[in-house]
Amino acid sequence: MTRLTRKYLLWLALGTAPLLAAYVAIAILSSPAIYATPGLGWVLFALAVAGVVALITLSVSLARKILAPLDQVAASLQKPADIDRPPHGSELEIEAVAETIAALQTKLKDMTHSRDVLERLLARISDAILVTNAESEITRANNAAADLLDYPASELIGRSLSQLIDIDLRSKARPGEPAARSSDGTFLRRDGTAMPVSYTVAELRDSDDQLEGWIIAAQNSAERRRAENRIKFLARTDPLTKISNRMQFQHQLQQSIARARRARQCLVLLYMDIDRFKDINDTFGHGAGDRALEIFSQRIVGQLPEGAIAGRLAGDEFAVLLSGFANLSGAIDASDNSANAMLNAVGRPFRLEAQEIYVTSSIGIAIYPRDADNVIDLLRDADSALYQAKRAGGNCYETYSEEMRNAAVDRLMLKSKLRRAFERDELRLHYQPKYHLATGVVAGAEALVRWDLPERGLIFPADFIPIAEESNLILQLGDWVFNQVCEDYRYWQRCLAAPEKVSLNLSLRQLQQLRFLDRLQGMFRYHGVSPTCLELEITETTLMDDAERTVQLLNALYGMGLHLTIDDFGTGYSSLSALQQFPITTLKIDQSFVRDVAIDKDDAAIVTAIIVMAHNLNLEVVAEGVESEQQLEFLRQHGCDYVQGHLFGEPMTSEGLLQLMLDQAQGDTQYKQLFA
Ligand code: C2E
Ligand code: MG
Ligand code: MG
User: Fold this and answer.
1) What percent of the chain has a predicted confidence (pLDDT) above 70?
2) How confident is the model at residue 1 (pLDDT cuts 50, 70, 90)?
3) Which ligand is nearest to the CA of 631?
């Protein structure tokens, strides 16, 4: 209350009293009675004055009484909120009420919000959710529950849970825990059929820990069980061939080893793969490759003795485990028999992409416990034996021996040493002459690389080209060979008017490299050697890898004057007509056909057919790997053009070849005796 207001009230009080007094005085004085009694006027006047004074005093004190509490209220209202000041009793209550109201508002908001969220959640959740009261009557059911039980959601409400589910809720829900582990059970659907489900149960309790009901979450477990079985199947089985995958096979092997250990028995592990499987993929595509793997697998499985297990370990690698051998000799006999049976079964022709295909395979064998007593070592030993079988030319089996382990370690060592072979000048180039069969004239030579590793001696390409091909080393190696051939050729040109053509072997990686043509042209220019002096040997597989690009590239090479030869012909899967698109001039029959040409009717027929067909296509034919006079004779009779092989000596050094060519130029015919 302002000071001014206070003053007005005071004056009001003071003003009212005299007015009242004046009114009383006037009333007395105007009365005629007072003039009748002498002295009474003065008495009445004194009484009036005393009354006025008393009235004023009363007014003031009344005004003060009223103003005092109003002042207090005004002061408290005018003062700013003072938090340090201990609140007055009534203020405390007001604050508490305000707080409660605020809390209630928030709670109300939260509840409304969370109920909305809950509704939406229940509607969208894929699990069936049923909420019951303490009497097990359903109070809430979401869409998924309605679907699962085949009821409209509204019809579920009020039903007793026991009509639908055979669950003892009390034993399933653990007090105080959100949800017990899921259990398997059955729900009864509307049409009476039983639906297998997996479900969890949780108790609902109020704030006083009184049981309010239960919440049940359930899933159709038929689907889950199907999925579980599928996952189990996929985890253990190779999807293409439907036999054990690597993991499962190793697991089975481990179990078999444990059993064999207890029974003191032997096991046989056959590790096998398809020879030149890459060629099938490259020639016919991966779909056909898969089909070949399926057929391969079926044939292996068809040969399994009782109790044997087969698995696909990777790509074209398969394994077979034979068990139950009382002694080593029994295991060895069984391994020989099984390996032969498998090689025969796999070797039978089959049709692929409307063509008849022959595949062969190689097998490595390891025996438990003779070679190793655990899964890893046994597999590794069988793999080493397989590597040896491959080296022996494939289509055969090898049994593991101690030296093979050393060979495997060696391969790893070689890789790291090969990198340094270039700077250490450890590579050598040998030349294998090519003879014109009709005249015995040296008509060219093939450059064959060797690696002269000081502590090992001469290493042949079969032992390091595959290693080089695993990395870019093959490109470096290709460049080295090319430069060396050009250098040697330049030297021969100084000694001879026209040295014979030299052929180089080309790897797929070389042909694939970017700007291969430019690199080659650069090297020809650098050495001053004409492309017409060289010939490139390319395998069928390399040609077919990316036939479209290769045709263009080879046309350009041919345009430069280079001659092109197909190497190892007959081992790939290309037909002669498919090869017609390439600008090739020569075809080299693989030595695997030449080897038995004089004694094997099939090989004789194949070689004869190749010669005839090649001549029809105006291609010249070279036979490689000629080792005997019988082979030479056969080839001569069938019109083969050129021959190469150990019959005429091992591949020779650059000086050796120069000498041979010089002798020939000077009319020395000693080397021609075989051709007489
Ligand atoms: P290829 O091109 O088919 O070479 C023929 C292989 O047969 C050579 O083996 C040769 O020494 C061998 N050979 C020749 N005549 C006979 C014979 O009468 N009997 C037997 N059993 N073998 C004979 P090499 O030198 O071990 O080369 C093996 C393979 O290594 C070659 O097969 C070729 O594919 C590859 N190669 C050799 N040099 C190079 C090279 O510089 N670059 C590339 N990329 N590969 C090369
Ligand atoms: Mg060759
Ligand atoms: Mg060859």
Assistant:
1) 81
2) very low
3) 1
Residues that place a CB less than 5 A from ion ligand 3: 567-568
Instruction: Identify which of 276, 431, 448 to mutate to test ligand 1's pocket (most ligand atoms within 8 A of the CB).
Output: 448
What does the block give as tokens for 339?
A: 């390996």
Distance of alpha carbon 12 from alpha carbon 18, whole angstroms: 11
- The first and second tokens of residue 396, run together, are 């055969």
CB 624 within 8 A of CB 642: no
- What is the biggest distance separating any 2 CA atoms in the chain, rounded to whole angstroms? 198
| Domain limits, CATH 3.30.450.20, in the chain | 125-226
Tens-digit pLDDT profile for residues 192-221: 888 888 888 888 888 888 888 888 888 888
Closest CA to 414 of 366, 369, 465: 465
Q: Is the CB of 597 under 6 A from ligand 1?
A: no
Number of the ligand 1 atom closest to the C-alpha atom of 461:
30
Helices and strands (H and E) in the chain: how many: 25, 21
Q: Which of 519, 441, 436 is nearest to 483 (CA)?
A: 519
Collect all residues with Cβ–Cβ distance below 8 Å to 560 and sequence separation of at least 6.
520, 521, 524, 531
CATH superfamily of 413-675: EAL domain (3.20.20.450)
C-alpha distances in Å from residue 135, one per residue of 153, 161, 169, 526, 585: 19, 9, 11, 98, 94
Could you tell me the pTM of the whole model? 0.57
The band of 64, judged by pLDDT with boundaries at 50, 70 and 90, is low
Q: Contact 303/338 with Cβ under 8 angstroms?
A: yes
Q: What is the pLDDT of residue 501?
A: 97
Ligand positioned closest to the Cα atom of 448? 1
Question: Looking at the CA of 625, which ligand is closest?
Answer: 1
Could you tell me the fold of the domain covering 125-226?
Answer: Beta-Lactamase (3.30.450)
Residues 6+ apart with CB under 8 A from 132: 138, 139, 161, 169, 213, 214, 215, 216
The vertex-476 CA angle with 475 and 482, nearest 5°, equals: 90
Q: Which two tokens stand for residue 545?
A: 């890898």
Is the CB of residue 627 below 6 angstroms from any atom belonging to ligand 1?
Answer: yes
448 lines ligand 1 (CB under 6 A): yes
* Amino acid letter for position 328: L
Ligand 1: residue whose CA is nearest its atom 46: 505
- Ligand 1 close to Cβ of residue 507 (< 6 A): yes
Ligand 1 contact, 568 CB (< 6 A): yes
CA 493 to chain centre: 56
Compute, in angstroms, the gap from residue 391 CA to the centroid of ligand 1: 13
Compute, in angstroms, the gap from residue 212 CA to the centroid of ligand 1.
86
How is residue 303 written in tokens?
């040969």
CB-ligand 1 contact for 479 (6 Å cutoff): no
Q: How far is the CA of 448 from the centre of ligand 1 (A)?
A: 6
Protein residue with its CA nearest to atom 8 in ligand 1: 448
Alpha-carbon gap, residue 642 to 624, rounded angstroms:
9
**Which fold is adopted by the domain 237-400?**
Alpha-Beta Plaits (3.30.70)
Q: Is 542 in the pocket of ligand 1 (CB under 6 A)?
A: no
